[in-house]
Amino acid sequence: MTEAVTINPTELIAEMGRRARAAATVLALAPTATKAAALRAAAQAMRAEEATILAANGEDMARGAVNGLSGAMLDRLKLTPERIEAIAAGLEAVAGLTDPVGQEIDRAARPNGLLLTRVRVPLGVVGIIYESRPNVTADAGGLAMMAGNAAILRGGSEARGSNHAIHAALQQGLAVAGLPEDAIQLVPVSDRAAVGAMLTAAGLIDIIIPRGGKSLVARVQAEAKVPVLAHLDGIVHLYIDKAADPEMARTIALNAKMRRTGICGATETLLIDRAFADPAPILSTIADSGCELRGTDEIRAIEPRAVAATAEDWDTEYLDAILSATLVDGVDGAMAHIAAHGSHHTDAIVTDDAVTAERFLNEVDSAIVAWNASTQFADGGEFGLGAEIGIATGRLHARGPVALEGLTTYKWLVRGSGQTRA
After folding, report:
1. What is the structure's pLDDT at 169?
2. What is the pTM assigned to this prediction?
3. Which CATH topology does 236-377 take?
4. Would you give the end-to-end CA distance of the chain in angstroms?
């Protein structure tokens, strides 16, 4: 797609921001049924335009291969009929969720007769900056709109054709429902200066959500003049406790790493209790699957195909068929390792000891903590949220998969009968 390279990025984002603000005013008051109708129509448009979307994605994939994108990045970029159907179904799932806008959080009657209520309201204009995965165009745009927000989307240049094709389907859905097409806008240029313009668009954009690699998130956090809802590294751990069922541990470990290696919920470090009876079947299964194991001397003594791990391995999000592994001294050793090297994203324990499991669940400080389940369940769709705009690893506003509720804030409504304050 030809870019309008003469456009000044700051002026472009300012104009998009003004249009988004006007659309957000409409969306904040739009009925739930109207917003849902837009998403369902967008889903049907995606199905109808499958061939167009796949053709655009094919061009992106070919260009990515020429430009040396890794296998994991190409997997994140790739669309198939099944993945397009999953995106469309995700939009329909979001359309069927409870609308948070206007929900009453709580109420209280004061002794002076004032009635106070807190109700959910949209954030306003949400800027989403993301890389590689074209499904984010639909997920982020659809979620933001259903929560009453206008969205300004800036996808990565590697997916520009796919993003534009998916965005066209979203625009069709908005038009069918009679909502302003400015409700979901896609930045039409790949100029990195457009990102900088979004980060400094205070008063036009209310919150920035970055979804991508460490360098992108670091830039957003360093330069942003508007609030940021950050998704940092997915340095995800799976701990096999001494009381784990061996077959369950083997099955979960394989799935947690190898189901899809390029997603943020993929396990990157395997921790095994030194008291676990037989780690060899777990390690050999992972090695047999084509995964490169990087381990300590103890791990290499158990699985000779493992290569020596370096200090950097414990702090690396591979997003590839690579897994670091080490033995630890029980749950305390596992939690100490996670505290030292984790990114507060997702961590899991496999054990039949409920007491140990509850300690792990309560003491590990991550957005998602799991017991006897694959870390690959770290996904808004799997949580019943329809889709997600990202997984927030910070502490403020929202944490874990961010979906409809996470894209709202609240305001206080005060109803009186003539009260004045002394």
Report:
1. 98
2. 0.85
3. Aldehyde Dehydrogenase; Chain A, domain 2 (3.40.309)
4. 65
